[in-house]
Amino acid sequence: MTIMSDINLGPLTTLTGYALRRAQVAVFQDFHAMMEHEDIRPAQFSVLEVLKHNPGLRQTQVSLTLGIKSANFVPLFDALERRNLAERRPIEGDRRARGLFLTQLGLDTLTRLEKLVDQHEARCETKLGPTGKRTLLDLLHRLTEAR
Amino acid sequence: MTIMSDINLGPLTTLTGYALRRAQVAVFQDFHAMMEHEDIRPAQFSVLEVLKHNPGLRQTQVSLTLGIKSANFVPLFDALERRNLAERRPIEGDRRARGLFLTQLGLDTLTRLEKLVDQHEARCETKLGPTGKRTLLDLLHRLTEAR
DNA sequence: TATTGTTATACTCTATAACTATA
DNA sequence: TATAGTTATAGAGTATAACAATA
Hints:
Two copies of one chain form a homodimer. Chain A has 147 residues and is mainly alpha-helical. The first copy, chain A, has a domain at 40-134: Arc Repressor Mutant, subunit A (Orthogonal Bundle), CATH 1.10.10.10. The first copy, chain A, contains six helices and two strands; from the N terminus they run ααααββαα. Chain A has a two-stranded antiparallel sheet with strand order 1-2. In chain A, helix 1 packs across helix 5 (104-128). Chain A is globular, with a radius of gyration of 19 Å. The termini of chain A are far apart.
């Protein structure tokens, strides 16, 4: 039980990157707590969602979209395939590439995951207030977009 | 040269955690590019700032404040000490604990780093607009604070 | 020659358990 | 018994280079 000490953070208090990191860690901890017994990580969830909404994409397209290096995407997707949540299928006309799809189990699982994520997201919205989340997303997009 | 494809991100488009992660990565990349030839990482910078504003803190206090596990703090601080940027000193009255301080070189270095960080932060502010940054910090704090 | 996917590998970050020396 | 710091270690996450198969 530590007394809340008045430690001076100096310029960190107004440093965008520092605030971003702390908030991201906090939000991801909540996500992780929610997904723990489903054993799904944020990156895996994002891949499943992309495949649900864009079945048949190539690995390069998915990994580029999500900012995952193709070399790192391979073991990530291998794990999903091993669990029979998603699969690689041959593509007509290009025997180098593979199309990525959810399996039926993957789709069913994702439906269950989305309910959990909705609860997780609701907790964020509670903290941010009704208009706060919209504002936050807008500001974050400005930081993410190149230029 | 890839054509910008219209890939559907589904619920990720309004997922706070996803937007947070992408923004944090973008901001940290800019920080890293700025600090590359100084060879200082975000966590190291934050430790140096805390020591500058709170000389003599114990390791536990610093690591707890910054959300770094004490076991991971040791090699982090070892590196700073090896480079003669900071040092551990004995504490009167408790021979288990050590007080942490910047060296003169550490203080001089930090002064130089702060100028770089100011430029980095200015780029963030440009993207966020004058009131945007203040709003963003407020919203991020709401996510970070427990409750 | 260029592209898709892959392997191997290394480095950072983070997490846990167990230890020491002191209190 | 509890605390401050430390060690060892394992697991993620991320980065680069090089390769095979195919275009």
